[in-house]
Amino acid sequence: MPSTDNPTSPLFYHGTRADLKPGDLIAAGNNSNYGARKPASWVYLTGTLDAAIWGAELAAGDGRERIYIVEPTGEIVDDPNLTDRKFPGNPTLSYRSRQPLRVTGEVTEWQGHPPERLREMKDHIERLKAQGIEAID
Fold first, then answer.
1. 10 Å Cβ neighbour count for 96?
2. Which residues does 95 contact at the CB level (< 8 Å), separation at least 6?
3. 132 or 95, which is more confident?
């Protein structure tokens, strides 16, 4: 995994199926991977590889699952979809921003979740969708 210019700055990740390269920007305004797939007014990032793996595994589309190392270009705030609803105190280090994220590298070797765990998560998301429950934007 590539290092950052500043060894004391935290690493942030973004899981997706988009094919990007260093220097590309990941910006709000793209269709969400979840719910009604409306254009998202936020872009999401995490400080944990596990949360990024979930992002890659659950992302819509047929592209290869990818995890990018990103740096925020503006202010980041806690992601209320996880921190306020599921994990008080933000142990998943999940954040969002209205400003783009700059791709600085890619994590090329990572282990996905076991197939049965991934199926459980996808089934859970489908149950929420059937109930009309959408993620906060």
1. 23
2. 12, 44, 45, 46, 47, 72, 76, 77, 78, 79
3. 95
Position 30 scores a pLDDT of: 78
* CB-count burial class (<10 Å; 0-12, 13-18, 19+) for 42: buried
Asked whether 112 and 67 are in contact (CB, 8 A), the reply is: no
Write down the residue that tokens 């996880």 correspond to.
82
pTM as predicted: 0.82
CA-based torsion, 18, 19, 22, 27: positive or negative:
negative
